[in-house]
């Protein structure tokens, strides 16, 4: 299990099948919403709206990165990313003034 500023929880599904070219990842965003993601050569996409759940009717778009996917799903991620970027820029500015 992983928790960081970007998500509340993220882990590879132990209940859904994995293959060399595909895996399922469960993610809970900061807002508390849970998703099941499919990871393939095409990228990441939402395939279910609960952990370990694949909804055959779910036809979401693929994202090249987890950051792009989170940006589309989570306002809290966008805010946390923006705040982290701002802190980094402020630190660089302080370093350049020293």
UniProtKB/TrEMBL annotation:
Domain annotation GSKIP: ranges: 5-92
Domain of life: Eukaryota
Gene3D superfamilies according to UniProt: Hypothetical protein (hspc210)
Record-linked Pfam families: GSKIP_dom (PF05303)
Similarity comment: Belongs to the GSKIP family.
Listed PANTHER family: GSK3B-INTERACTING PROTEIN
Name of the protein this chain belongs to: GSKIP domain-containing protein
Organism: Staurois parvus
Record lineage: Eukaryota, Metazoa, Chordata, Craniata, Vertebrata
């Amino acid at each position: 299990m992983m928790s960081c500023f970007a998500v509340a929880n993220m882990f590879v599904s132990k209940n859904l099948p994995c293959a060399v070219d595909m895996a399922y990842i469960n993610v809970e965003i900061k807002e508390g919403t849970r998703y099941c993601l499919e990871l393939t050569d095409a990228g990441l996409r939402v395939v279910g709206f609960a952990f370990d759940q694949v909804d055959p009717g779910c036809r979401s778009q693929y994202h090249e990165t987890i950051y792009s996917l989170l940006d589309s799903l989570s306002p809290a991620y966008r805010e946390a990313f923006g705040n982290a970027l701002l802190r980094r820029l402020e630190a660089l500015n302080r370093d350049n003034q020293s």
